[in-house]
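Dear colleagues,

As part of the handover before I leave the project, I'm documenting each prediction I ran so the next person doesn't have to rerun anything. This entry is a single chain, and its sequence is reproduced below.
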Amino acid sequence: MVDMAENNRAVIKLRERFAADIVEVKEFRGEVTVTVTKNNIVEICNYLKTALGYNLLTDVTAVDYLGKSPRFQVVYNMYSIPSKDRLRVKAQVEEADATIDSVSGVWSSANWLERETYDLFGITFAGHPDLRRILMTDDWVGHPLRKDYPLQGPDREPYKGRLS
């Protein structure tokens, strides 16, 4: 069986140019995901947009893997209108340094998407032009989509579900 991810044009080009930054490439149900280190995320995204035609950033979010290292992955879902191709890029972010460079200079749509991720997960986007809460009030304590965020009430308990 042919591995769709390894034969994907974008994956081949990314491996040629950013080999040291690629951690993993996966394909599941026809969707390709490239996991990278956070070090060159702006350069990787700029290359995907300008050289490979991923001209639409559809979403930026994060995943919290509480109890694992790295704890977070920032997820960029992008689409190439000319080639009608989707690509997901995940960047690993450690809990101790929950910061990654902003890609709002690459896609202007990242502005509010990064603010939402910051607000709900507490991941800081360095170089963002206006990084502040967007959904929660300014005096809100904590980040509601973190798995260790208390669930309800004034005496809220942290999440005690499975960590794997």
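The helical segments are 4-7, 9-18, 41-50, 110-121. The chain has a mean pLDDT of 91.

All the best with the project,
I.
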